[in-house]
Amino acid sequence: MKKMFTSFLFFLLFTLGSHADNGKKVFETYCWGCHHQTAMAFGPSFTTIASKRTAQEIEAMITDPEGVSKVFGYKRNAMPALKLKAEELQAITAYILSFRNVANENNTSKKEQNKTIIEEPYPNIAITKETH
Fold it and tell me: What kind of architecture, by CATH, is found in domain 2-104?
């Protein structure tokens, strides 16, 4: 049983890695003109998409962007519907979602940059004020 579980886990990791590699190829073929992995281009970056959307929402936006845009409440849509094979759709979705960690890291570092760190606390005026 343990051997079977280990084999399944290895297969799963190999498949996910394979999807990411194939996803990069799909990105380079269909998406790079409008999207970038971590920077805003004509369309949102993959880090932005990955931080806001589920796999199902990403797949729906790729296959039916006009319909999904209406559901999301967008007034317009510039993305064309892509006719991808099921493997390509899964691969690009996995590739986009692989940037979720990048988005989380960026948000954490921005929060850290915005923190005000006080080396020494302000003196308590009530305590240090002399009474007459």
Answer: Orthogonal Bundle (1.10)
